[in-house]
Amino acid sequence: MAVVIDSLGAQRPRHPEKQSRPDSPILRKPDWLRVRAPGSPGYQETRAIVKAHGLVTVCEEAACPNIGECWSVRHATMMIMGETCTRACSFCNVATGLPGPLDPTEPDRVAQAVAKMGLAHVVITSVDRDDLSDGGAAHFAAVVHAIRAAAPATTIEILTPDFLRKERAEDVLTDARPDVFNHNLETVPRLYQTIRPGARYYQSLRLLDRVKQCDPNAFTKSGLMVGLGETKEEVLQVMDDMRVAGVDFITIGQYLQPSRKHAPIDRFWAPEEFAALETIARSKGFLMVSSSPLTRSSHHAGEDFARLKAARQSRAA
């Protein structure tokens, strides 16, 4: 179950900063991106838990195609540090603006929710907080520590911003000892100016590399979207860059345009192309690869973490 916990429990504003972008036509989805409408008993139970706890869900707001599957087995991705991002990435469905102050009660509230839901694995993500001196690294660490105290059996994956110009933020995060450190490169470097204008490709690589240097035993993970205009050769180069940075786990999924105000889809990659990318990625030495049209960074995160550990043990044997 993917949920957002914000300090106010309010619905997000809808991209006031993106309204100046010209409308882009939304391409019709091919059959392999069509999923059944959610409605299983597990889904209904999860939906009831979300409503009972007054939570806002990324799954619902982003109309994630995996909501039925994930909610039926209680996958969770919790968003911290508010609902307003300081960046304006053209692929993202989160509002941009000046965020409010951090809520000091948030770590404990998130931890209590994790414990009450009985989550075996939880993913903690956030908006970008360029307004904070450490980018929110200490707040991330506080959430990890709170979950460890309230739900010690739960494994924790953090999906972080890039902490651009926030020196030593990664040290704070690695000291918290999450089970998985995830930071997505999102796209190829040529497209950063239009897709991730506030980010820097090599800063993201540096962050992943630095985490590995700080803790060589840490599991690191990163993801790519395809369908934004990249070439296969560019995707393969990103794979090589990730391996140089020591990334253990790569996810590759199809970009889906949230609205006409967002970056248009250049094309839909076919399932056999994702299968080919998976084969290539494994040949390059990744411990774990998830590559399919519906792959998302947190999709099957708990099961994938178990496979990731097993792959490392097998390789070490």
Task: Please describe what this structure looks like.
This protein has 317 residues and is α/β, with parallel strands linked by helices. It has one domain: Alpha-Beta Barrel (TIM Barrel), CATH 3.20.20.70. It is 36% helix and 13% strand. It has eleven helices and nine strands. It has helices at residues 41-52, 58-61, 67-72, 106-117, 137-150, 169-175, 192-195, 201-214, 232-244, 271-283, 301-316; strands spanning 77-80, 84-85, 95-96, 121-126, 155-159, 180-182, 219-226, 249-254, 288-291. The strands form two sheets. The protein has a seven-stranded parallel sheet with strand order 1-4-5-6-7-8-9, sandwiched between helices. Strand 8 (249-254), helix 10 (271-283) and strand 9 (288-291) form a beta-alpha-beta unit. The radius of gyration is 18 Å and the shape is globular.
What is the CATH topology classification name? TIM Barrel
Topology, number of strands: 9
Widest beta sheet: strand line-up? 1-4-5-6-7-8-9
Uncertain regions spanning at least 5 consecutive residues: 1-20
Determine the structural class based on helices, strands and strand pairing. alpha/beta
Described by strand count, sense and barrel closure, the largest sheet is:
7 strands, parallel
Radius of gyration: 18 Å
**Bulk shape:** globular
Q: Please name the fourth-level CATH homologous superfamily.
A: Aldolase class I
Q: Give the number of helices.
A: 11
The average pLDDT score comes to 86
